[in-house]
Every structure is written in C-alpha cells, then in structure tokens.
Amino acid sequence: MCGFVGAIWEAGATPVSEGELRAMTDALAHRGPDDADVWLGATPSGGGVALGHRRLSILDPTPCGRQPMVDPATGCRVAFNGEIYNYRELADRFADGRPYDTGTDTEVLLRAFSEVEYDCVGHFRGMFAFAAYDPRHGTLLLARDRLGQKPLFLRREPGRLLFASELKALLQVDGAPREVDPAAVDRFLALQYVPDPHCILTGYEKLPPGHRLIWRNGAVDSQAYWRPPYAGNACVDGPFHTPLSGVTAPEDWLEHTRQRVEEAVRLRLRSDVPLGAFLSGGVDSTVICAVAQKLLREAGAGPLKTFSIGFAEKRYDESDFARTAADTLGTDHHEFRVTPDAVAALPRLAWHFDEPFGDSSAIPTLALSEHTREHVTVALSGDGGDELFCGYERYDAVRLAARLDRLGPLKALVAAPLWQRLPAGVEQKGVMRRAKRFAAELAKSPQERYLRWIGIFDRETRDELYTPEFRARIDQDAAGDLRDAFAACGCDDGTVDGEVRAATCVDLLTYLPGDILVKVDRASMAVGLEARSPLLDHRVAELAAEMPQSVKVRGGRAKWPLKAAAWSDDFAKLPQGFLDRKKTGFGVPLGPWFRGELRPLLDRALLSDRALARGWFRPEAVRRLIEDHAAGRWDHSARLWCLLMLELWCRTWLDPATAPTAAPSTLDELL
C-alpha cells in the first residue's frame, strides 16, 4: 500500500513544478515509508503531466518495484496505491509476449492499461486507486476500487487537474485555496463524516467508489464502472459479472458464501512481507482468521499471527472473546492492553484524516494499528460483514418499523406522543431511550426515519446550533446524498425485506466508504500498515447483494451465512453462543470523558474566542450541549466529539498561514 500524487494540464495552464510535486509526494511519507520517486513529462498537445509516489513495499520489495512505473514498450506510466490481488491470474492475459521485469502487481496493472486502457479496471480484484498516463494519446485514467477502500482526492481547475491519495498533498501546491464549504460542514454534523464525492474544502472533491475519471485534451469524463446488484440489475461492469441463477436453497447460498470468502482470503494471503490479522472475537474477524489459519496450515506455513487490544473498562473490552477465538483456532495471538489517550490522539487524528471525522473508534483503531505494525506489515480485517450480511442492530429497527407500517391503527398507537413522556435513562444506547427514539420517528417515511436514526445532529438540532449567517450559506440538503443512495439502490420493492435490503445497500454506498473505510485506511496508513478486507472482495459483495434477506437473517440469527458456514474444523469448536452474543463495537468512553477529564477541553476549544469568531455556531447552543451533558441530563457525547474534531480540524488546516506537513506534537499546539 502506498500514496501517490499528480497533475495534468493543458498548454497555457499553470504547470506543476518539480518542487511542488516533491512537496506533494513528501506529504504522504507516512503512507509509503520505504521509497519515493517523481516523474514529469510533456503531453502531445503541449501541456504537461506529473506523477509522484511513496512506496510501502509489499510485493517484490526490491527497487524494481519503484513507482511511478513505466512500460518501456508503450511509454505508459502508472502511480498506484493498493493491491491487485489477482495479478498472478492476469499476468498471462496481459503479457503481450514479453517477460515481466518485476514480481509486482503494479507491472501487471500497467500492462493491462497499456493494452485495454479504461476497461482495465473491470479485470482487477482488489483495493486500489491509481493514475495511469498514456503518452500515445495524451490521456490520463484515474480509478478507484469498487467499494472505496482506497481514497482519491481531486481538484479541477481551468486547464488543469490535480489528484492525490490524501487531501493534504493537494494543499502543498502553491496558492492552493483552503476555504471551508458550509454544506460540507452540515453534512459532517449530520453524518459524522463528509460523504463522497464532497469535500470539506470548496473546490476539492473525492472520486466516488467504483468510478473512473478520464482526462482527454482538457475534457474530464467521470463515470461509474460498477455498482452492487441489489436490485437484480446487471453491474456496470457487465461481462465481468455473472449473476447467480437457480440458487434458492439456503444451504446452496451457504456453500457459495464459503467458496467466495475462502477464495478472497486466499488471494489476500499473497505477500512478500510479514502478514497477520486483526482479531476482535466478533463474527467477521473470527471468520477471516479461521479461513486464513486453515489455508496457512494447508500450505505448510506457521500459524497466523493475530492481534487485539484490551481496555480496562469492561464495557469496551472484547479481549476475552478475542483470546477465546485465538485459542480455539490455534493462532499466534498478540494482545495489547491499552488505556485510550484522547489527548495524545486528537492532534494526530486531525492531521491524518484531512477532513473532520467524528467516529471516535478511530482512537482504538489507531492504537491497534500501531501495535500490530510492530510485528507485521500487512493485516487482514473483517470489515464489511455488517453491511453485506445484515449485522447492524439498526436493521432490526428497520424491519420492525416496516412491519408496523402494515398494521394501521397499531402503528399510530406506538408512535403516539404519550411514549415520549415516559422516563428514560441518559445513555443514548439505553433500552428506553432507543425505544423512544424509534417511536418518535415511526410516523415518518421509511427513508426519512432511517436518516434520523443513523444521524448525529438532526435537522432541528443543527438549525438551533447555526448562526443565521452560517445557515444562510448552506445551499444543499445534508440528507440529499442518502436519498440519492436509496434511489440508486432501487431495491425497496414495498415489502418488509425490501426495506431492510435498501438500508443495507445505502450503508454499503455511504456509511461503509465514508466512515468505516476512511477510518481503517487513515489509521493503518498513519503507521505504514496495510489493512486487507477479504469480505470486501467485490465478488463477495455481489453475492451478498443478490442473496435473499431470508438467508442473511435466518432463524433470528443475523449474518447467518457467516455464522453457519463450515469454515474450518477449529471454527466448529467455538463455544456455543460465542457467535450470537450481543455486538459490542469498537468504542471509547466518550460520555464519562466529557463529564470528567475532557470537560475543560470542551470549554477551551469550543467556547474559545477563536472558535466563536468563526461565526458558525451560536455560543448559547454550544454551551447548552456541554452543560446538559455534564449535568447528566442528556448524552451528547457523539455530538460534542464531532464539534471538537471539527474545531481541531479548523485549527490544523484552516488557521495556519500554510498547510502543515506534519501532525502537531501535542494538543497544546492547537489550543
């Protein structure tokens, strides 16, 4: 895994100098600590093109794998971040009668682009973002993997296109503007992340997952090349997708799941550097580790190295479950006991994530990545299982609400205002509090209530928070992206299962790439660790998209295919009930922190003259959130965390005279 940057421009447009290109490249040193190089050239029309690359050596770690890489036969060049897992299978197809000079997937990608140009992305199984330039036509291809595991930021200017793996690299270009987009702030506070294709800064964007962008003579064409087939429609990649037909029995779906997941794990075990796996003891990571351990044994290799972290606060500690899974599967397990240190993590998060990011599980993810990197360079993870196989508890709420929709007068009784008068605890995830929230939104349409269930600040709370001046600058609806995702999924057929299916599809298109995969990419890349997610193999995703809901949730068991498949003999020995326990999640004690050791930080950051001078938020509204939380009247921890991360992001990226090239050493530097 690596990082890359680049630009292409027409004759007469502002060129990117070698100094700028090197500054852009150096800003991504954390993504590629092993090697670096840049290249500049001229286009046939008199313009220019530039590529820069930072390398984390995984396959063929010799200097032969240096990027940007050139194909000597065609002059085509590529800068690439990620992995093409099926590169060995593609090597013969794109050899063109010539031997390969390296053992890298990059060279196979380059040969494929040289031969079939823009159609090459359909051949690849992997996580990737890349820039490929063809001097024969003066064209540039930018592409991002189907599920959005690898990032790609863009800036379009008259006659010039800039691109990079992270936004911070684009900010190293001379004169790069840093003006916040109020609509992006609104989206962030609604969702706790800025969804694709939007960016927190005006004039910048992200290439969405499953998209490619083509530059040709100054014209830019962005198009989707893949979408998950939830509605039974063919994928955009057409010939590269073969829908399952005649599969009806749950046992048959189970076998297809086993085959595809096992194949995905096998491909992701390819590495020329030490490899291990994250193991939380949850369903997804346990499945991945069981399959990997079995495959390594069959290959005569040593046991899989697995990694987990434990916390002193039992509510957030899954280390006992991870240990049980490791002992049962026979892995070489490494457990790290940590005390989450928000004060130390905050300045690093603000710098590494580039945009405000409100998912507090980034703290333990960063800690786990750091400890894992001490032992291996590559780690398998179980990301994607909840979205693909219906694992989140909120899908139960969607299912229950859909059933109540069909009960007429009884639905009106459940949604009656009387329920809101019943007492409830402070904790947002308390049973009564969640029941009241469920009932309060029941009268709305399925789409609207789902948007409110997954949101952080709802529309009314955001309106109370904003100053009139800032509110007037927001020209887009924060919920519009999720509504567009519902429309794109096209799988709500009016049935209960259809509504649940639509919610899982929307999460796959929005929450997964916007939150989960951003968190994993930035946290792992901050320490030079490559995280691989077998469940996000697009063939597994396509299988899950076509799978009936009655198979995903069977006999009351969510993620039934993952729990019931015969992954290995050891997997079958897990204790009874181990896979069906209540989901814990990967969190930190925000609520107690903001009533205790982090309480002064809220005043110091959110109510400071510096913060209030931005003119975005009403001081009394911010103060009310802090005081209500501190007094135990309401759990505003998620909202306060978002506001804190937004302010620290401003102090990192907006306030300095120039964009920083490294994270602040301490939080005091930002305060």
Automatic annotation (TrEMBL):
Entry EC number(s): 6.3.5.4
Top-level taxon of origin: Bacteria
UniProt cross-references to Pfam families, sorted A to Z: Asn_synthase, GATase_7
Residue ranges crossing the lipid bilayer per the database entry: none
Listed PROSITE patterns: GATASE_TYPE_2
Example of a GO MF term: asparagine synthase (glutamine-hydrolyzing) activity
Residues reported in the UniProt entry to bind L-glutamine: 105
Reactions it catalyzes: L-aspartate + L-glutamine + ATP + H2O = L-asparagine + L-glutamate + AMP + diphosphate + H(+)
Keywords, in A-Z order: Amino-acid biosynthesis, Asparagine biosynthesis, ATP-binding, Glutamine amidotransferase, Ligase, Nucleotide-binding
An example Gene Ontology CC term for this record: cytosol
Domain Glutamine amidotransferase type-2 intervals: 2-218
Pathway: Amino-acid biosynthesis; L-asparagine biosynthesis; L-asparagine from L-aspartate (L-Gln route): step 1/1
Active site annotation, chain numbering: 2
GO terms classed as biological process: asparagine biosynthetic process
Cytoplasm recorded as keyword: no
InterPro entries: Asn_synth_AEB, Asn_synthase, ASN_synthetase/amidase, AsnB_N, GATase_2_dom, Ntn_hydrolases_N, Rossmann-like_a/b/a_fold
Family: Belongs to the asparagine synthetase family.
Protein name: asparagine synthase (glutamine-hydrolyzing)
Taxon lineage: Bacteria, Pseudomonadati, Planctomycetota, Planctomycetia, Planctomycetales
Gene symbol of the encoding locus: asnB_2
